Records
---
Amino acid sequence: QVQLEESGGGLVEAGGSLRLSCAASGHTSRPTGWFRQAPGKEREFVAAIGPKSLNIAYADSVKGRFIVSRDNAINTVFLQMNRLKPEDTAVYYCAAGSFGHIARSYDYWGQGTQVTVSS
């Protein structure tokens, strides 16, 4: 069993930055993804990272602005979000157990952390 807990969300002005963390406990060092869900919209893929950081993927909407990384020594995956836009406003979730953009392929999910970008 894997438990995931996101942190680092908050309110930021457009153009600003936030760093999200996803702390894992249990059977860790799994491939991990970040997803987000805005009100009234479907959950969408943001980024994914393999267990040894050799494979990384980003959604086109965040490529060049967001950076996913991990520190297996502390069982944590990070999402550095730069040049934030109002359209990045959403609840951000981390998920473990798969790699890629298909949410239902992931086995474990965190509770989410709210990111709000003001214009």
---
Amino acid sequence: QVQLVESGGGLVQAGGSLTLSCGASGRTSSIDVMGWYRQAPGQQRQLVALIKSGGSTDYADSVKGRVTISRDDAKKSVSLQMNSLKPEDTAVYYCNVRETILNRRYYYWGQGTQVTVSS
């Protein structure tokens, strides 16, 4: 099992910046993919960004150029630096990690952290 704890959400004005952090504990040695998703009211949870163990990244088109995902494998953590925030970025942001053991994949979610961008 992997436990995830997120921090860094809050209220920010449009154009501002926030950094979200997520720390993993428990059975972390087999984590290969770490990422962030978000869910706005009435919408489905969507990928924001992910980073693989080799360092390759993937970003949603809506955040490309404004968001940077990074990971610290020594600290078992993943961060999301968000710049030039827009009101449409308002959502609950969830940390997600994938664990791969003997070709089986397990996914874990954090509890979510609210990001609110005021216009």
---
Amino acid sequence: QVQLVESGGGLVQAGGSLRLSCAASGSRDSISTMGWYRQSPGKQRELVASITSGGSTNYVDSVKGRFTVSRDNAKNTVYLQMNSLKPEDTAAYYCNARLVTAFGYTYDRWGQGAQVTVSS
């Protein structure tokens, strides 16, 4: 059973930085895209950043230039470096991994969520 374990959330002042980590374990299937989503109360979950196994990245416009997603394929770990944080970045951040079976079937797994709170 695949498990994603997140770490690194917390409380920070506006303009500060945090780094989230997410390690996947227990998978016999390949991990293709890994990414970070966030959700704040009353809002839909949105994709923040994603990275393919080849290193191609994608960001939501609101975090471009401030957040950086990276991954260590050998460790099945994805990171999100968040700089110049703003109060509107406050949310629960969820790690996502898309896995691919030997037969080409894809499925998603999610982390437990890490709270990021940015004070003004």
---
Amino acid sequence: QVQLVESGGGLVQAGGSLRLSCAASGDIRSISRMGWYRQAPGKQRELVASITSDGNTNYADSVKGRFTISRDSAKNTSYLQMNSLKPEDTFVYYCNALIVRSNGYGYQYWGQGTQVTVSS
């Protein structure tokens, strides 16, 4: 099995920063892509940022210049550094990873979600 465990969410004032972490563990041969999504109640989950095994990154327009995604391949961990936070960044944030397991097949996994609340 594979688990994604997130940490780092919380309450912060507008203009502040938070760093989210997502650690993958279990039956992992390789991780081709890691990403962060966010979701408001009753809304669709939306991509915030993603990073490939080659280090190529992609960001939602709303977070460009404020958020930075990175990964530590040796630790199977991704990070989302969030700066200049705004109240509209208040969501539940989910870690996502496309993982190749020992059987050679790729599977998509999600973390349990972590709440980020930005107060004005």
